[in-house]
Amino acid sequence: MSAARRRRAASVAGALALTAAATLAATGTAHAAGYNGKCGAGYRLVESADLGSVGTVHLTWNASTGKNCVVTVRNSPGPAVWMEAWVTRLVTGGGGIDNGDYTSYAGPVYIDGRNTCIAFGGAIGSVSVTRGPGHCN
């Protein structure tokens, strides 16, 4: 490969890397904005799981209380639709669920996540997602 082609390939690869980084940063920012502190003070966003074009399920953690919290948030509030947010402890069991017809979000749902691993998920209409097992604290 000629020196000019190598420079051009490196330039394209660099541009693609910058585009990917910007996309990830924008997505993380959008997820954080959608979450908007619905679990309360002291909770930090741990993971967000997309529900296609309709919304996102957010998992948060509060280190001082040892609790996880899950909320499912619509991208665009509107007429009430079936929504669900849930979280469960693996091994020891227990958990919480909030579901029903909502206009903007389901939850928050809390669980003591200390010394255990959890799974979480949610749904909007017919679109659902499950994450876990994981997030062991």
Please characterize this protein's 3D structure.
With 137 residues, the protein is an alpha+beta fold. The chain has a single domain (36-134), classed as Immunoglobulin-like. It is built from one helix and eight strands. The chain has one helix at residues 3-35; strands spanning 44-51, 55-62, 67-74, 81-89, 95-102, 105-112, 118-124, 127-134. The strands form two sheets. Strands 1-2-3-6 form a four-stranded antiparallel sheet, with helices on one face. A four-stranded antiparallel sheet has the order 5-4-7-8, with no helix packed on it. Strand 7 and strand 8 (127-134) form a beta hairpin.
Topology:
Layout: H1 3-35, E1 44-51, E2 55-62, E3 67-74, E4 81-89, E5 95-102, E6 105-112, E7 118-124, E8 127-134
Antiparallel strand pairs: 1-2, 2-3, 3-6, 4-5, 4-7, 7-8
| Overall residue-averaged pLDDT value | 80
Task: Tell me the CATH architecture.
Answer: Sandwich
Shape, please?
A: globular
Gap from first CA to last CA: 51 Å
What is the top-level CATH class?
Mainly Beta
Number of domains: 1
- Number of DSSP strand runs: 8
Major β-sheet annotation: 4 strands, antiparallel
Identify the strand order in the major beta sheet: 1-2-3-6
Share in helix: 10-25%
- Structural class determined from secondary elements: alpha+beta
Low-confidence stretches: 1-30
The DSSP helix count reads: 1
